[in-house]
Amino acid sequence: xxxxxxxxxxxxxxxxxxxxxxxxxxxENKPLTLVLKVIETNFNVTxxxxxxxxxxxxVTIVGDFTLDEIxxxxxxxxxxxxxxxxxxxxIIYKTKENAFPDDExxxxxLDNVFISAYIAQGIDRESSGAINVKTxxxxxxxxxxxxxxxxxxxxxxxxxxxxxxATDLQIRGGSADQNLVLWDGxxxxxxxxxxxxxxxxxxxxxxxxxVYRSATQSRFGDRVSGIVDxxxxxxxxxNIKGGFGFTMTHADALxxxxxxxxxxxxxVSARRSYNDWISTFTADNYFDRVFQSTRISTNxxxxxxDEQFRExxxxxxxxxxxxxxxxxxSDKDDISVSALYVKNDLDYAIEDVEDENVSSDQLDLKNQGxxxxxxxxxxxxxxxxxxxxxxxYNSNYVxxxxxxxxxxxxxxxxxxxxxFGIALxxxxxxxxxxNISGGYQFYNTKIDYTLSQLDDIEEDFQDASSNSLNSHNLxxxxxxxxxxxxxxxxxxxxxxxxxxxVYIEPRINSTYSFNKHFKLNASAEVKHQAISQFIExxxxxxLENTIWTVADNEDNFVIRSKQFTLGFLLNKNNWRIDVEGYxxxxxxxxxxxxxxNNANAANNDVFxxxxxxxxxxxxxxxxxxxxxxTWVSYTLSRTRQQxxxxxxxxxxxxxxxxxxxxxxxxxxxxxxxxSLGWQYSSGNPFTRALSIAEDDxxxxxxxxxxxxNSRLKSYHRLDASxxxxxxxxxxxxxxxxxxxxxxxxxxxxxxxxxxxxxxxxDNAPDPVTINDLQIQEETNFGLKFTPNIVLRVWF
Length: 795
Prior knowledge:
CATH architecture of the largest domain: Beta Barrel
């Protein structure tokens, strides 16, 4: 322990004083928006401004400039004022007469930004209700060596992962399959690498992320919980640029290639794990975390302790790649084509040399897709957007057991989702304070799954399904701004042809400013979801064992969600306090989908239709002092579900967390960035085993207490990161980045879940009686102390 703390605090105290950087510029008569993006990249600063105000401005910047020098030049040679709101953050005004007091600057609505640097640099709150994250603007975050897209989202209050996964996002009591995740408009049905430990989205290609916990705009549908809308880079670069790097788990490369100046460009990127070639301590820790309490972990221990067993294969690999073509045929048109490929593979096999037995686990998991997006700005009031996409998800798991080269047991789990969509949206600006938008969306989703088992002892089993769903959607949204009031309202209508039903979803979000320091916000929304996941518990390897299926209103139902929020925002003297209470009601839940029908729970053969509700409050308190930024996020909530045929009364959901708390610190000193974060949460709920019983057929089973009536120990984790930026060439065209992160510095054993099974006592007779049996409890734990390193080069 002392060694870990010594490493941390020695690293945190390491810093040198560097002269301010300067960069060489050769930009003659370039759009101001382009110049600002270049400056933001070079100096790691943020400019907040209205696109409408600066879009027709051009500037000339030629020579070698520091940040202070270039800001002075822009102030002197443009009709704008560049006002420093805080370190590394500027606001741009049309004239020098309309400056605002310092404590009001971060609340000015510039374009669609409602609050700049809502939590930290690169995280803004929009007037629509979304939280916008710009990954390239983020300072270093604790425990991360790169801004993992899905882990960054978890910094927001009300968003947690109860199993340390990057992708298992539980947004205000919802489950992960109730979230809509989009990549350039492509619906994603798998979002993680290495069984969810990392995001499948390359952060260096990502431009921005819009996160909706509530107040969802009417153009979004199909899910009843949160929205994570990810957009990749959309600017045509002036010159060839890119980067490459590696961590202790994977390597990546990115290239931005302009084909025609300000007209056409191509962006390509790729990431791949390399632990199948080189083993690292970081990858080993993730392996232990993921495969604990599974056959693979048991077999790995057998190989290490007994020469009778040997591994034939042991590979876990992942990769993702992106391609984007940007084309601007005219000043009014923007066209882009995006393609994404995500792949995860597991290939494990072990041999019992003496008995000539071979068992193998193979998992092939892919999500690929492409989209076309065309945006046309007809005039300063009217624009339209056309988009089409295709998404293909494929998960194929096979377990085989061979004796003397003869197949004796085989299990297969196959799931495929093919999704096609087309959308047309138009927006019209009625006035400077009135906007109306609407459109039509069509989705066709086809889902197949097969569960099969072949056993020379037990009966063969197979469950297969093939269904498709056509969804026709009309939506309209109206935004109105008064001096002290902002109103966003809309309605969405969805017709599901296979069910012959129409679903109406009203949405409303409003903000009222009592004065320049205090604001009140409220929202209400209704949403529906016809595609969900269920869990296959009988798989030999209980990982990635969720299966997408379509609602039929017989066993699986169209889920309905109603959510209401009320909160306030106080902003004064570099303090920010944001408090929001919420109530969410879910109807038409299926016990089949909620994960109750499994061998590790009571009443596992009973099907039930139920409902759930979440009530909670999210609190954010932030303070910034020069280059030091700190914030506390806290959620107090309760999530309950009710399934009458399974259990009388309400019981805690698996996603129920009474308390969830984070305290983050960030400090930037010249080229050095430091961050430290502590997180605490209530233990996960679980159902404790009580005793072993025997039924009328003389089969033994476990009797449990009331469902989810017990709690694991509280969760604590301390993380830290250090990042150093340096120049590798005199003209600053080649830059480097070296970072170090620590997860779970105190090496705490955090309990994630418990499972139970029946075992025979030593020397049990044959046949066994109930007195010869015992309950075996197994606890799964989170990541142990795990350091990581990153080295990147930008050009």
